[in-house]
Design goal:
By secondary structure, this protein is α/β, with parallel strands linked by helices. It has four helices and five strands, in the order αβββαβαβα. The two termini are 39 Å apart.
Length: 156
């Protein structure tokens, strides 16, 4: 037997994020949602926040970009929601240069950050973005929710 070891209590409570992450969900109906057949053909996006506890760099928001084809997810942190458009332009430039492909469609949850005149003009000028503002009712929504939940449970 070992002596002088601390007595460790076993905790049986599970945090909300862990509980929700382990719940089973209904299968998504096949053939109902349009799916991308190539890289960057459809990118899902959402802005999350404000988060009650800011990061060490004082960020209270984050923006998600999820490629529908590869499920690759990019996360950018923001101090202010008003910086969404600048972050989108940086993201677009970066992924298009790295992949050699262009973003063809962008799908969001109809948030105000993607309905500004500045954003609409940018989409018109680029010509390659077919801005699809639709409710996220497919697997990308559950991916986004899992990321959001993992952030929420850390808040006090």
């Amino acid at each position: 037997m070992m002596r002088d070891l601390p007595n460790i209590k076993e905790i049986h409570d599970v945090c909300e994020g862990c509980q929700l992450g382990k719940q089973h969900q209904q299968a998504f109906p096949s053939g109902k949602a349009w799916r991308a057949k190539a890289l960057l053909e459809l990118v899902h996006t959402d802005v999350c926040g404000p988060i009650r506890t800011p990061s060490l760099d004082n960020n209270k928001y984050f923006i998600l970009f999820i490629d529908d084809y590869t499920i690759m997810t990019w996360v950018y942190f923001l101090r202010q929601r008003s910086k969404v458009f600048n972050i989108f332009k940086k993201f677009k430039t970066r992924v298009e240069k790295q992949s050699g492909r262009y973003i063809k469609a962008l799908r969001s949850d109809r948030g105000k950050e993607y309905t500004s005149k500045e954003f609409n003009k940018f989409c018109e000028d680029e010509g390659s973005i077919n801005k699809q503002l639709a409710m996220l009712l497919n697997k990308m929504e559950s991916q986004k929710e899992k990321i959001e939940l993992s952030w929420r449970w850390q808040d006090p």
